[in-house]
Batch of 2 targets.
Target 1
Amino acid sequence: MRAYSELPPDYVERGEFNLENSRLLMAMNLIGLVLLVGAGWLFAVLFTRLRPHTGEFILIFRSETPWQVLSTLLTFLVLLVLMIVLHEGLHGLAFWLFTRSRPQFTFKGWYASASAPGWYFTLPAYAIIGLLPLFGISLLGLALAPLLPESWIVPTWALLTMNAAGAIGDVMIVGWLFTLPRNALVQDFHTRTVAYVPQSARFGAER
């Protein structure tokens, strides 16, 4: 598992995974909605088992006054921002661990990304970079669940759920890596991941 600052001379471009592709983006949004429901259910079940003394896990939003409505919305807004910061921060940490150079962060509205455009990564290294936020945040949240104050259970559940749904792009990119030759290298450009392979594997001869 390595990162290279230069592309080997016999490597050529094989293809790319472009998150700006409109069809791909639409598919990701639809799959993300399904994942949001599935992740919410899974984390609810896990929290119930980790905190059996709290009884059945029930999520009820009671908004009896305008202030309570605003408070609920603000809580989830803060959680969303926190999730984005943690998620991209872990991507950045993984990039740094492999390159020992400062990653680049981009924030455009609700979209954020970490990247290392000047580096080329082996497939195992890039898979770790891609999946670290999903597994790191999920496992940390579940590990802390038995220790959290009662009032933190639902916010933590919401953060883990949003993080899992927001990782749909990472999961799809890692899935795409399995279609590449084992000796491929990939380069990250925020919304584009470009794959390079040796000239002999240009047309898929080497797996």
Note: The chain has one domain: 3-201.
Target 2
Amino acid sequence: MLNLNRKEQRQLLDNYFLSTTEALAILRISKQNFYSLIHRDKITKIKKDGATLFFKEEILARANAQNQLRQKYRPYDF
């Protein structure tokens, strides 16, 4: 078991996980669309004692894919 202090624990969480608010800001989508992605298993949700987190790497990959799709199907937005 790792013996990390609070600052190290927070840094570990910040490096690998995002909150709902952070994920929404990165993806630039509505909450409804975000929860639809979760429901369709496009985004993995992690729940622990009332806290909900998302894998940072997965959200960043999704944001990159969304940008490519937006450019392809909605070029007038750019």
Note: Residues 56-73 form the longest helix (18 residues).
